[in-house]
Each structure stands twice: as structure tokens, then as C-alpha cells.
Amino acid sequence: MAILSKIRERTVFLIVIIALALFAFVLTDLFRNGGFSSDKATSSVGVIGDEEIGREEFAAEVENIVQQSQGRVSTLQAANQAWENNLRRTLLKQEFESLGLEVGADQITDAMAQQLAGDPRFSNEAGFFDEAKLKQFIAELKVTSPQQYQQWVNFEQSMEVNAKSQLYFNMVKAGVQATLLEGRQIYHQENDNLTFEFVKVPFDKVEEVEVSKSDIQNYINAHKERFQQEAKRNLEYVYFEEAPSEEDNASVLEEIKKLTTDEKVEQAEGLSNFNTTDNLQEFVAVHSETPYNDNYTFEYNMKGEFAQAILDLDVNEVYGPYYENESYKISKLVERTQKADSVKTSHILVTYDGTRVDASVTRTKEEAKALADSLTTVVGRNSGKFAELADEFSSDRQSAENGGQLNWITYGALVPEFNDYVFDEAKVNSYGLVETDFGFHVIYLEDRTSLKDAVKVATVTKRVEPSEKTLNELYRSSSKFELATKDNDFRKEADSIELTVKPVNGINKLDESIPGAGRQRSIVKWAFEGETKTGDIKSFDTGSGYIVARVTKISKKGLQSAEEASAIVTPILRKQKQAEQIKSQIEGEDLNAVASSFGVIKQKASSVNISNPFIPGGGREPKIVGAAFAMSVNDISKPLQGNTGVYVIQLLEKNEAPALPTYRAVAKEETEKRTRSLLNPRTSPIIEALKNSKEIEDNRHLMY
């Protein structure tokens, strides 16, 4: 009781302590997950403008894309496709709302008619779209299947967006038409031309110049729009690959050797060994990882390093063990013969209820046999009726449309019973009946090729794979390496165990693959996690080994640093500085003197125009050609920096194309070109412009 009294006296104090503890717990979790915005990030895939992309709806769309692709795209690829679909829809929807763009019911129906054209559920007897049938379908769906009705509502909404999109892009189309003045300008850009002499002094005609870090930074600051980047990561990794050890290799070799000796091995009763067994098919089934092949192989088809050695065997002689395709093998020459390698044949396939060709057939097996016997008798008496009967009775419709002909078929391409009949049993120009799992075949054998050497070979295969001991040792090695690199140099540790360190630069948060390692999405996700820092190391199980990866650099979204932009900016600035040196050394306007002073030659360019600003020996030089068009005939330019050097030019001729009576055709062609570029709803730069006008938060990488 005394204790309870003490507790009651301190009730307020205890409440305060508990409240503070709970508050601390909440704050800890909050900071761990990135602040108050984390709830929004985990509940939505992203935010476009002021509109969230819901996680559940997005996941359903991703799953739908994966199913429709039938495994051709990965989950991440489907997520990327779903994101682009949502991005486009949402951006256009917001643009329509800001413009006050509306469409009527008739326009939505027209959009549906285009989408549903040819669907018999919504077509009249003439095959045209029927709005009455559409309304009836919707009414019935609303009553019978609320879930499918909701899907239909979503479809209607997408059709409304399509209708608005068509209206919107038609409005844009009206604004991109080229004027007659633009047509005139384009005509002259394509047809006016110049002839001029020039001297080009390549940049390397002066000494190498230095480009400092501050030079690069100043250039970046002056061209910020060119050097924006997404968040990126640089990694390096080593790969502990699952591979069999020498011990594993020796163990499999010893195991397969035993199959050719009299030493007692675990095998089915009566199988003896590979040399003496009288049941090769069963022996291979028990001991081999590949099945027994009872077909003949033509000698000209025998390939590989050991093919000739096997062909040189006597019948019942064994060759091996030999190593091929990561497996140890022993092969026995079972039989030699001569066979045709192709036959020309036709058939009529008669199926019955239960065969796997035509589910609509209801005749019994007995009825099918009776029909097939009757057809065999008819064609035996009158071969001219074979094509007619094939067209009427054969369930193999592909050959039936060609009179039952299968044309030339290679040995082994047919089901066993059919194959044995046409290659071994039947005579050329004869008819016969064969039963297979597909039904009864009335067969006509028209021709065979000449006989060729063939062999039957039995092979026992045992693949060399890493043992459990080897896999455990691999795991221990990768774990030991991971621990060692926490305190020591990553590369030195790799060198000490003779592993190659592979660098990977510029990984994006939505990348799925690591160069040299294939799909490794888990590594990419880890590299972009908020808690992952430069220098962090982690091991990953790839399913075929272990990758130990280290983050070497974290580049945040935004303006590139001088180091990151150096590869692009340094050549630009180097050319600028070299150009200034060259310009300072050019004296006078005599082209021959300029050429002589730099050890180059004077050249001539003819019929140069603005649309194709190509200078012989210099490539595309739009700045130089543009400057030339601003000159008067016989003028000599000041030194001009081009793409490949510094130019001094003298204009010799300026030829203006004759005026056209009208520039309407040129303007029309330009309009069509602009329309093709701008008005494709999926690739239009309009969508890119809308993206740039909105705040977009993309959380795909947190979920996929």
C-alpha cells in the first residue's frame, strides 16, 4: 500500500516522463525516415504539380503492363512506362484545366468510336460503330459487374483526355504554320550560295594551354542550364563468382570414370557399367543429366572438338571421359547405318475427341480409325483425290490448304511414329496409315534423298558445378573481404586475393543494371538510400555469386561541379584559349602570308549555303559560313574561331537564287515538318516543355 501511495503522489511526474519518451521515439523515427515529408513519399509514387500519383493505382498499372508484356519487360521497366503514361496524362490534364479546355459528349463518343472500331460488341450488322449498342453495353455492365463498370468509367475518362488532346494539339498545329516570309527565308537559306577562299589554322598549331578549375567553374556559372544533372553515384565492386573448385572438378571426373569400370557403383540392378550394359537407355536415364537420344545423327552434323574421335570408334566402343560445355562426358557408338536425311511427304490428319489438335472434334477414336482406313483405301485407288480429301477432312489446316503437302522434311523433325514410317518403313510413291498422339495420319511418301552415313551415339553427361563446400567457402571469402575493407583500402584488399576491382561511374537512381554484372537493382537502390555515404561497403547475393560494392562518389541533383563538368568544358576552353593565341599571331590580311606563317595552305570553298554549312577540309562550320554571308564580295574577314580551327576568309562570289513567284509550297513543307515534330502526343517537345513548367517529385526509385 505504501508503494501505491508513493506512485499516486508522483502521477503527474510519471505522465510527463512517459510523454517525453513517446515524443523522443516519434522524433527518432521521423529523422530516420527523412522528416515530415516521408509519409507523403511512401504513400505516393510521385507528385506532379499539385497532384499525387497514388501508390496502389500505380502498382496496379505496373502489374497490368507486366502481364500484357508476357514477361518481356521487368517490373522496373514497367514502372518506368507507367510513370511516363501518368506524367503525360497528368501534365495534359493540368494544362487543359488551366486553359479551360472542354469537350462535349459527342467528341468523347467520337474518340471512343475510333478506339472501339471493329469490336463486334459495339458494331452494327454492316460492321460500323453503333452508339446505341455502346449505351446498352454500359447499362448492362453497371448492373451486372460494378468492378468492370468502374474500369469502363476509367476508360471513358481516358477517352475524354484523348478528345481534349486532339483538340489541344489541333490548336497548337494552327500556331506552328510557317508564314510566306519564313518560306522565303528558308528558300534562300537552301539555295543562295557563296564561293570563298580561306585559310584554316588548326588549334594544335600553337602550344598546349592550361585550363584551370576556376576557368571551368566560371564557364559553368555562365551556362548553368547546360550543366544541370540528376543525382548520380559512382561505385567500384569485386565479384566473387560461383565456380566449381579443382576438388569439385576432380570429384565429377572420378564419378564418371567409375561408370566405365567394373568397380561397384550405385546403379540400378542389371545395368552393369557403360561398357557392358545391355540397356543403354535406362543406364543413361539413371546416370546422365541429359536424356538418351534414340535418333540417328548424320555424320556431317557431328560438331565439336571430340566429334571425329567419336566417329572413329568401333560399334559398342566407348570414348572418354572428355570435358565439353562445362561437363564431363562419356560417349558410346551404338550403331552405324545409312539413311535418307530428308523426305517429301503429304498427309491427311484425322483427329478424334481427346487428341490435342482440334478441341471441336467430337468423333470417337473408333470412328476416326474407320474414316482414316476409308480415306487410305480411296487415295490408294485414286491418288488424284488426295488433295481434295485433305482439304475436306484434314485437321492440319495449314497443310490441308496446300493439298496436304508437308514438302521436304528433315530426319527427326516429325513425331517418332510418323518419322519412323516415312524414313524406314514406307516405299517411295506409296500410301499408308500411322497413328500418333495427334490422331491418324493418312500418309503419301513422294520421295527420299539419297542415303548418307549416320550413327547412333549414347552419351552420359555430368555437369561440373560448385559443391556445397565450395559455396560455403565462397560466402566466407566474400564476408571476410567485406569485413577487411571496412578498415583497409578496398583496392589493396582486392589485389591481395587477386580479384579485379571494376569501377562503375554515373549510375542513375532508376538504373537496373550494373555494367559487367547484369541486373542488380538492389545495389542501385542501396547506393541511393539516404543513409548510404561515400565509402560505404556492402555485400550482395546475386544468385550466381557475391558482389561486394563500395560507393566512391555521390553527386547530388543540381549544378555539376568543376570536376564533373571537366571532360566537357576543358576542350571548349582549351580551343578558346588556343584560338586567342592564333588570332594574336595573325598579322595583315594577305591569306597567302597567313598560310605561310603557320605552315598551312590556302583553300577554296564553292557553292556553300547556310542550310548545309560544310567547308572542304573543315567539316560543318555554321559560324564561319554565317559570317561569310554577312560579308561583301572581295572583303577579307578578321580571324574567326570555328569548330576545328581559326579561319580567315575572303569572299569571292555571292550568288542569290532567283526569286519564286510564291513561297507557299516552301512554307507548306516547313509547316508539315514542324507538325511532325511537335504534334506526336508521345514524343512531342510540348510534353517536355510542360514538364519543365511543373514541380515534379519522383519516388519510383524508393519502390522499385
What structural class results from the helix and strand content? alpha+beta
Domain module tally: 6
Low-confidence stretches: 1-41, 264-270
Radius of gyration: 39 Å
- How does the major sheet shape up? 4 strands, antiparallel
Q: Roughly what fraction of the amino acids lie in strands?
A: 15-25%
- Separation, N- and C-terminal Cα atoms: 59 Å
Strand order of the largest sheet: 20-3-24-23
Task: Note down, in words, how this protein is organized.
Residues 340-447 form the PpiC domain. The chain is α+β, with helices and mostly antiparallel strands. The protein has 6 domains: 1-33; 105-175, no CATH class; 193-228 and 564-655; 231-243 and 467-556; 246-339, no CATH class; 342-448, Chitinase A, domain 3. Helix content is 46%, strand content 22%. The strands form 8 sheets. It has a 4-stranded antiparallel sheet with strand order 20-3-24-23. A 4-stranded antiparallel sheet has the order 14-5-18-17, with helices on both faces. Helix 4 (55-69) packs across helix 5 (75-99), helix 5 (75-99) packs across helix 8 (146-175) and helix 10 (213-222) packs across helix 21. The longest helix has 30 residues, at 146-175.
